[in-house]
Design goal:
The protein folds into two domains: about 260 residues, Zn peptidases (Aminopeptidase), CATH 3.40.630.10; about 150 residues, Alpha-Beta Plaits, CATH 3.30.70.360. Strands 1-2-6-3-7-17 form a six-stranded mixed β-sheet. The chain is of the alpha/beta class and about 475 residues long. It is globular. The structure holds zinc ion. The site of zinc ion has 5 residues, from loops.
Length: about 475
């Protein structure tokens, strides 16, 4: 249900809508109502797929059919796996490799204990104070809805794609994406589909957040790489015993010592692609000296590495990281436990394989009493996509149409996304969302008061409609063989 908008907020919204209504994308006013409505569906995914509310996802699908009638009458739409959606918009030249746009239907759960902290209830989709509020308002219903709005609008405009488009919406991205994106990628691979490029969430637009760049100039980051994911169980077993007798070997102490040694031996830092290209790209928007430093890493690499290691976020771009996230042992005050266990969560830099990462930790621990094993499903980092491609240029062009004057640079994302399942469907994997962050506003993805500025949603509509029109149209600049 769409909330009523208080008078003042309505005025603010009207101002945003009037300002935002432009000829370069779907009209904002009705689109934002549909976006708001999409947030009222509780499409929460769970690690146990049986716990996911499939009826709610079916209701969400019914809403999409009603909201986008042309898309659902002109495009082929398939249900893949349990609740993933795959749309195919055939182009007039079947020999051209298709484009694939990804988004996900699912959202993370809302912690009941935090309900009172939400300014508006998390599944209300309230439009107020220039924002659309609710779980999924940032991650990632604006992408899913803006892609469908763009397709519907392009159909209304009589647009006929030369190059085929696929729109694929997983239902379990927040819990690793094997059932949704994994199944869709498997379906496409089995059908022999090789895409020219695939675009998923990741990256974004920063305002005033990159030191040295004019704070009014948008900095758009296209993630051409992402890190691999690995969780390890670390276990020490001993004989245990009564606490009155001083133990020879206490599993808690042995394991604690091992964890300390892991922290003392971080993975080596590597100034590898896409980081040099990112620094060169950002350097273009900086003053002479910073630009010189970032464009001449052969000379300045040592200093630059030290600077990047100084901040946890930039450090994560140049090394495999380890975080100890769980520790458990002991059942009673007067019993020495027979077992202690911990979980280490690693994010692997491209080029650092799972066996290499495990060997590094084994060497760091240097104690055979500590047993390491892979916990759950791990994934290697997908290959880094080159920057000097027509696909990268196409995305950059849609970004500059949406954010005039933007500085565009490649990046690597520390989080995992659905796109990693698609490495067998395309060599060109890009991650970008036109979502704008500043020092004071990040949109709170996954957190309390998740929300998106209405004005930012206009930019979603402009970006995706531009990307689809230019990418599937005759002057995309993409290869034709
Ligand atoms: Zn997401």
């Amino acid at each position: 249900m769409i909330a009523r908008i208080p008078a003042l907020c309505s005025l603010l919204l009207t101002a945003a809508l009037t300002f935002g209504a432009g000829p370069s994308g779907p009209p904002l006013e009705s689109a934002v109502q549909r976006f708001s409505k999409s947030l009222t569906f509780r499409t929460v995914s769970h690690a146990d797929p049986a716990a996911t509310d499939r009826l709610e996802l079916a209701r969400f699908h019914a809403f999409l059919r009603e909201a986008f009638p042309l898309v659902h009458s002109r495009l082929e739409c398939r249900l893949i796996g349990q609740s993933a959606l795959l749309y195919h918009w055939p182009g007039t030249r079947p020999s051209l490799k298709p484009l694939i746009l990804l988004a996900h239907q699912d959202v993370v759960a809302v912690d009941e204990a935090t309900l009172h902290q939400w300014t508006h209830p998390p599944f209300s989709g309230v439009i107020a104070d220039g924002f659309v509020w609710g779980r999924g308002a940032r991650d990632f219903k604006p992408g899913l809805m803006a892609i469908l709005e763009s397709a519907e609008w392009l159909l209304q405009q009589g647009f006929v794609p030369e190059r085929s488009l696929y729109l694929a919406f997983g239902d379990d991205e927040e819990v690793q994406g094997y059932g949704g994106a994994g199944a869709v990628a498997g379906h496409l691979a089995a059908a022999g589909v090789q895409a020219e490029l695939i675009l998923d969430e990741g990256g974004g637009v920063a305002l005033g957040m990159v030191g040295g760049v004019d704070p009014r100039r948008p900095v758009a980051m296209i993630a051409v790489a992402e890190k691999g994911y690995l969780s390890l169980d670390l276990v020490v077993e001993g004989s245990g015993g009564h606490s009155a007798a001083s133990p020879r070997e206490n599993p808690i102490v042995v394991l604690a010592d091992a964890l300390r040694r892991i922290e003392a031996k971080p993975f080596p830092a590597a100034l590898q692609e896409p980081v040099p290209s990112m620094l060169a790209g950002l350097g273009e928007g900086m003053g002479f000296w910073k630009g010189f430093v970032f464009s001449n890493l052969w000379l300045t690499g040592g200093v630059t590495t030290r600077v990047l290691l100084g901040d946890p976020e930039t450090e994560a771009m140049i090394r495999t990281t380890v975080a100890i996230t769980r520790f458990s042992s002991g059942v009673q005050d007067n019993v020495i436990p027979g077992r202690a266990s911990a979980v280490a969560n690693l994010r692997l830099l491209p080029g650092c394989s799972i066996p290499q990462a495990m060997q590094h930790l084994t060497d760091a621990i240097d104690d055979p009493r500590v047993k390491l094993s892979v916990r759950g499903r791990a994934s290697e980092a997908p290959p880094v996509t080159p920057v000097s491609t027509p696909g990268y240029a196409l995305i950059s062009s849609a970004i500059r149409t949406t954010f005039p004057g933007a500085l565009v640079a490649p990046s690597i994302t520390a989080g995992t996304t659905d796109i990693r399942h698609y490495a067998r469907v395309s060599h060109n994997l890009y991650r970008f969302v036109p979502s704008v962050s500043t020092h004071t506003f990040s949109g709170n993805g996954h957190r309390t008061d998740e929300r998106l500025p209405v004005e930012n949603y206009r930019q979603y509509l402009t970006f995706y409609s531009t990307f689809m029109r230019e990418g599937a149209g005759p002057r995309s600049g993409l290869p034709t063989d």
